[in-house]
């Protein structure tokens, strides 16, 4: 299936793009892109010099332009060549520039028609940027799998009971039927468990309560951006604090078989405990990198190149409702893009 | 050429499948299979959950069923789903089960129609299981080559004079014309050398005799199972012990370009000398892994994807008689399978 | 584009082929070739035994013949089998022999019709063999790129200003327009800079002069053999020594995406300073292996499989004149070979 192009994709954390001339190179939707800062903004250029096809990421930034390391041509944020050491600037000397935007401490890039690149279309992840930096746990992994398998993994959290027994498992998501709903383009799935044990990592923060009513909600925005919120209330209306753990899981396709997985968690308790933040970041990374990633990569290898799940008529379970709705939505959006001639 | 399917293949040594819930995963004829013990038997299932295609080998065994590590579906030895944490068991919830059998301390699996899977068709390797465990030298290598190149290597032992000069070379197999014969489906090749020096590894066990009449016999059973017996008699009927060294060389295709090579040797002398067994195991492993394997992998690379030797009109020598007859037999068996519609 | 076949290619340094039975295996134009010494000459055989396709490079040389390590067939310098341990020599027992020649301390091999292999066609690299061995800096790298990208790199030295700033950059080649000319099949490009600072590595050898008039000349011979000469005269006719640094850059295709890069430098100053030679060799190797090679491999990856630069309508600059003329010459020669039926 073709990529969805007219959407914003996360290209990185803004902290990855240092001040002072650094560049960030990422392949997104199979296109090599190099990012650098210019003035107050972020430039995103096709990572290939039009002269001899050298990657511009090997170059250096000065005066807001990126100079190729091979023969010295320099390009501005709009992709136009601004310097040719060997003579006048040729008319054809330009590279593709992509709309790029900084929001919610992430770098976003628009992979479709530049005229349609409205920053207002960036989904709301203020849950990240509103939280104090000291409770955030940003991370980035590369996963050798199609991004829809990663969407599936977040949209169907019933796997938590089995794959993350020692960290995130709480109550038993796999034994309740989740509710799936649609709001505009967004798709929401909600698991509600009552009178349940909290997960290992949240257990100690209940202020004395040991059983909770827990809502676990995921809201998806195309193509692979998900907000995950866990809300824990002392069971049966007992007194005690309401714990809220929020996070984002952003899947940006690198190729049809590899995905950038950006993630970040926050919380509303122990907000001054930096050691706790470090510990939770480590637990999350271990779960994503040592439990989810190997499993999803194994699924990709097991499926082979064709990861179009629905066309393979899998045996679906109750927990697949959200993931299946997301897959159908993506297919409809891609079809719409193509029928509009993009 | 297609694989021969209606035959028993060695999948592993039974010692590889530990008691207490272990699994053994092997790809055989390009099919991923997971083995585990249930009751007194061995189960062999397609290593892919029908829900989301996770490899079942990542799961755990309990009560004779294998539970998927991703979403918790469990499957019994017959491939039927026995537990769905999310609700009733769907009708489609099953995986392919392969006939599997334990014999001669090996795990055998049948890759064709289950109805034809008769354990009586497993070739006789009692030479291994009848020998005391303390003289056996079981081993397993993965070789990046088509299994027929490995068959060739055992069926044409004239290479021993050149490739294994410091270990197995005895007399000069390359200078005698071997006898090839057929018994039912089995193919036998025999090299007889007289008044010859024994090989380096057998030299010291002749009870004082220094020259021997040596018969080296290989019997092949489809698709890649060979028994190799060396019988050494003091030359010219002189008094002294008769040494017999037996072994098996079992080639199981993983893919068209990679093979599981299982091997084991035994002997009828110094049967209580465990140190000698360890030493002979090490010499054999070195010969297989550092002499045969690199050579056969180099031949595979040199031939490229097409390893159908006979179609390439090679220059054949006297020693190729057994290997060529085996290749023709395999081709006829595969053709027969296909004409029967398998 | 097809390879140019009726030309001499560098296969290695003669020092790589030791006396006493050594072999040198190289893949050239996708053909595996094994070289060995016989008498006063060098034999070059297809590196594949006609019996079972084993690579002959694993064998051993004795009496001027190369014996296969697998089953003991031996082949002479003309490719004919001279020994079969299993019986008479079969008529078909031969391998392809390639014309090979030792010249200028390099091994040359002819990849086209043997009847056309005239050693007089080997381009003159006496600049290497005439220089005392103690000033020579021979080297060999493998580069994962099409050989024409490596030709481009030497034919367009304007990159030196940017890629080799700390070693070879001198004056500013990128700011002068080079002169390109043709002599027979050879193509010459000349950069002349006046009143310039010498490069870092030559700076200290000017005998007190600090500004020079510098001619940098590259002469190309098909398919990938280039002589590079730098001649430095004290600026404006001032008194002082004339420094001459010569070198060769020989690109031999291994495949369409990998190239053997042989190189060697000499100089006409401090000719007894072995430490200087070692230092210059190290600087050159660092520049080629850590600056050119990563850049050219990145260009290859950026271009993908199609490295036919001119068909991709790149934005050309003044410095591309020599490289473009070489590419056109190669294309014409390949076309000529094919129209002649080779």
Question: Helix content range of the residues of chain A, please?
Answer: 10-25%
- As laid out across the biggest beta sheet of chain A, the strand order is 11-17-16-15-14-13-12
Topology as H/E string of chain A?
Answer: EEEEEEEEEEHEHHEEEEEEHH
Count of separate DSSP helical elements of chain A: 5
Q: How much strand content do the residues of chain A show?
A: 25-35%
**Spans of chain A of 5+ residues with little confidence (pLDDT < 50)?**
none
Oligomer: homotrimer
What is the averaged pLDDT score of chain A? 94
Radius of gyration of chain A, in angstroms, nearest whole number: 22 Å
Main sheet specs of chain A: 7 strands, antiparallel
Tell me, briefly, the overall form of chain A. globular
Structural class of chain A: alpha+beta
Largest inter-chain interface? Answer: A-C, 24 and 24 residues
N-to-C span of chain A: 15 Å
How many beta strands in the DSSP annotation of chain A? 17
Give a description of the structure.
The structure is a homotrimer of 342-residue chains. With 342 residues, chain A is α+β, with helices and mostly antiparallel strands. The first copy, chain A, is built from 5 helices and 17 strands. Chain A has helices at residues 126-130, 147-155, 160-163, 274-303, 321-339, and strands spanning 8-13, 23-28, 31-38, 41-46, 60-62, 65-67, 74-75, 81-83, 100-103, 106-110, 139-143, 179-183, 186-196, 212-221, 225-234, 243-255, 258-267. In chain A, a hairpin with a 2-residue loop joins strand 2 and strand 3. In chain A, helix 2 packs antiparallel against helix 5. The longest helix of chain A is centred in the C-terminal third of the chain and has 30 residues, at 274-303. The radius of gyration of chain A is 22 Å and the shape is globular. In chain A, 45% of the residues are buried. Chains in contact: A-B, A-C, B-C. The interface between B and C is medium-sized, with 23 and 24 residues.
């Amino acid at each position: 299936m073709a990529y969805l192009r007219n959407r914003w994709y996360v290209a990185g954390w803004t902290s990855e793009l240092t001040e002072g001339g650094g560049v960030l190179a990422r392949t997104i939707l199979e296109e090599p892109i190099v990012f650098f800062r210019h003035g107050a903004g972020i430039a995103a250029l096709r990572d290939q010099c039009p002269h001899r096809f050298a990657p511009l990421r090997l170059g250096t930034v000065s005066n807001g332009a990126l100079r190729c390391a091979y023969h010295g041509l320099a390009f501005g944020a709009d992709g136009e060549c601004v310097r040719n050491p060997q003579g006048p600037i040729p008319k054809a000397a330009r590279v593709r520039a992509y709309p790029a935007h900084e929001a919610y401490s992430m770098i976003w890039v628009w992979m479709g028609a530049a005229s349609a690149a409205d920053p207002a279309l960036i989904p709301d992840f203020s849950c990240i940027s509103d939280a104090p930096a000291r409770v955030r746990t940003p991370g980035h992994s590369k996963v050798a799998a199609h991004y829809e398998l990663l969407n599936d993994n977040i949209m169907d959290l019933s796997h938590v009971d089995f794959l993350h027994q020692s960290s995130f498992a709480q109550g038993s998501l796999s034994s309740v039927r989740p509710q799936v709903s649609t709001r505009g383009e967004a798709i929401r799935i909600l698991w509600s468990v009552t009178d349940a044990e909290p997960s290992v990592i949240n257990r100690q923060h209940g202020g004395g309560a040991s059983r909770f009513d827990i809502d676990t909600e995921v809201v998806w925005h195309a193509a692979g951006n998900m907000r995950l919120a866990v809300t824990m209330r002392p069971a049966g209306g007992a007194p005690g604090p309401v714990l809220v753990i929020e996070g984002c899981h952003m899947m940006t396709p690198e190729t049809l078989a590899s995905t950038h997985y950006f993630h970040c968690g926050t919380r509303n308790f122990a907000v001054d405990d930096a050691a706790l933040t470090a510990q939770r970041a480590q637990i999350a990374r271990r779960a994503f990198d040592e439990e989810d990633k190997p499993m999803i990569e194994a699924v990709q290898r097991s499926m082979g190149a064709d990861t179009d799940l629905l066309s393979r008529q899998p045996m679906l379970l109750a927990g697949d409702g959200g993931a299946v709705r997301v897959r159908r939505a993506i297919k409809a959006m891609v079809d719409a893009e193509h029928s509009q001639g993009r």
